[in-house]
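Lab notebook, bench 4. We co-purified these components, and the gel suggests they stay together. Before we commit to crystallization screens, I want a quick structural picture of the whole thing.
Request: model the full complex, all chains together.
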Amino acid sequence: MIELKAHNLSKNFNERIVFKNINFELSRGTSLAITGHNGSGKTTLVKIISGLISPSSGSVEFTADLVKKAYNEIYKYIGLVGPYIQLYNSLSAWENLIFFSRMRGITPDKEKIRTFMDKLGLRGRELDDVRSYSSGMMQRLKYVTALLHEPEVFIVDEPTSNLDAAGSQIVYDILEKQKKDKILIVATNEAEESRFGEQIINLTSE
Amino acid sequence: MASKLLTLLQNSVFIFIKDVRLEFRTRYAVNAMILFAITTLTAISFSLGPVRLDPNLVSSLLWILLFFSSMSSLSHIFVREEEQQTSDTLRLISGPIPIFLGKWLFNVVLILCLEIIIVPLFFILLNASVQGMSIFIVVLILGSIGLATVSTVIAAIISQASVKGALFAVLAFPISLPILISSINGTRLSIEGNNFSESMDYIQALFSFLVVIFTVSLLVFEFIWKK
Amino acid sequence: MLVIVGAFLFTPTAEGLGESTRILYFHVPCAWVAALAFLVSAMYSIIYLKKQNAIYDMWASSSAEIGMVFTVLATITGSIWAKAIWHSYWNWDPRETSIFILLLIYAAYFALRSAVDDNEQKARLSAVYSIIAFVTVPFLIFVVPRILESLHPDPLINTEGKINMNSKMLVVFLGSLTGFTFLYYWILKLKIGSYQLAGVIQKKLGKD
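Here is the predicted assembly.
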């Protein structure tokens, strides 16, 4: 059981303040939508929550079974999809997935990988080099990468970018499921996608 | 505790293998390095002609060659992650230590592979030979690992800055000086073929600097890597 | 404060055996401050990494700025002295080489700082470099005298030191050394003060 708490998160780059005093609490079955126009800091907030950047002040706390966890202990609990999370272009999808699984301490499972690839509409493309993927396929593959280890906390920045209607539908199904069973955080421009968060943080104010 | 260490080492190896695989597919760093080294070596040999050089000059030229060959390609391992935007992906799945170790190992292997080709070629083209082979090998290996270590940590720094190319050599040169000076002297002595005790001094200096710079780099890498 | 500093700066011109040796009162303290500034900069770099407060980066970089200036001064005065005594401006003797390497390190430090835009990253990366460079220094001290092993030994500055400094010279020399140290500290505090003032002004302007 993972819990996620943010205390008074603020971030500024040089003199420019991106946001101040962001607070929220999430646990299994809860979800958060981060909304705001382009450049309002959604991606920055997502990166801070995932541990990619540190906040200027405030903190993010992960607790598993009442024990506080540091970021270097929770790699296998977080899954992140976003435009800045790229895969290794010169390797095949398969090689990428094996690498990420191993790094997260999970034995790669051929069947499981095939299942996920199928689910995201990428049947049979495991052995292709990632650079041969179209942008839509790449987005789908990112979902496979982020979900393969069945993370407790699933974070998505711009869920349907580059996706066609079919792809978007697949993603929406996945998000619904994550929202119910795990912790889901969605950052999006699209107004209707904010329904995926029962809590909402809008970064445009101020 | 022990299992944590094991995981760290395992992850380092995974990263190393991943980078080797990538390098095999694209061959970017390897090509840059070998082409640069051969071009420079040819230029040196050609412009000097069939002259017999004194050991100090041979030794200095060798290490200048190795240093600049390192500058031409050992930053690739970090710069590539930034350029292809996979460094955040890497941050998501690993702490700083396996990343440093894996990439350090990559650079060490890369420079040693270069030397297997270039060093014999160097001595052939410059009409020189080594009298004290064992000292030569020891100095070569220690010095190379030293250069690789300095290159790895500086590469990590510059991968997050702009103007990466020139900055790499500017930052790396002062730090590489202890390695270069000791290696040049040690190599010179091995070419001359006597003076075992004096070369031990340099080997010790190389070894202790290597240990210190490796440890400091490992400790400090976390501050470079975490944003 | 000003008076003390001024007094110390003027004593070097008062005494000295042999005209050219007088530059010793100026040159050596410059080199000393250059090295001291580097040490201070590295120390504040370590503190910055521990405490993550931008003020420490301000100390580290200000100290480095002063250090760089004094390194340039030391190099120039050393070169002038070398011309006077050995009749050549540059010899790559160990002392000259060391000060030149220090200059390279400072230059690299500032090159790095100017290549990074984000203040936090700039502070963090330059702090790291400062520490790495500092760790290299003990080894350089050991290894630099060995560069010219195989060439003819140059008359080292040490032979000068062996000439007994009579007590008058010693007093002036130590006085100059202390004066320079105070000068360094004074300029450093001035710099920090002015940066902080600039920061306050900027904030006020930002609010309007």
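The longest strand of chain A covers residues 2-13. Worth comparing against the SEC data before the next meeting. Chain A has a mean pLDDT of 92.
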